[in-house]
Amino acid sequence: MNERAKELINYAVNAGSAERVPMVAFVDPCEHHSQMAQDDVQMAVGYVPDFVQAALDTPDEPFIDTVCAEYTETTGSSTVPFDLTLTDAGVLEDQNDDDEEERDPPLYPLVAIATQRGCVFVYHYGIVALVDALGNQHITRMD
User: Fold this and answer.
1) Which of 31, 67, 94, 114 could join 12 in a cystine, given CB atoms 3.0 to 4.6 angstroms apart?
2) How confident is the model at residue 20 (pLDDT cuts 50, 70, 90)?
3) Distance CA 63, CA 131 (A)
């Protein structure tokens, strides 16, 4: 399982109560976007917290599937998987080209949203990485 996601999920579990599953947001969790304005961060995150809340409201359904289904229902777009690697720190890396100079630069998360059921990393370009409490991952675009 992604170490950063595990750490964030554990934080949400320990901060939670029996009555409410908390959603905790960490802005710039890798300390890579310190110059980014709050309005820009909010714009990048968009409706992702709403999709996460839908998953929290349906605890018997798989976290990743519910977040993706809510996005599809709301926007009419599908969540096609991206072939990127999620590092333990929450950074997305392109490992698909043998020539390192041809690879896309790494993407650092703008925000990490942690819950007891999973974690969502939000990046530039509408890209998100969803990680459930079991370590399953799905990287896609939600713009």
Assistant:
1) 114
2) low
3) 8
Domain span at residue 30 reads 3-141
The whole-angstrom separation of Cα 65 and Cα 59 is 11
Count up the domains in the chain and report the number: 1
**Each residue's pLDDT tens digit, 97-113:** 666 777 788 999 999 99
- Tokens encoding 92: 């997305």
Report the C-alpha gap between 77 and 97 in whole angstroms: 28
75-114 core/surface letters (b: 16 or more CB in 10 A; e: else): eeeebeeeebebeeebbbebeeeeeeeeeeebbbbbbbbb
pTM, whole model, 2 decimals? 0.85
- List, for residues 2-11, the tens digit of each pLDDT value: 677 777 777 7
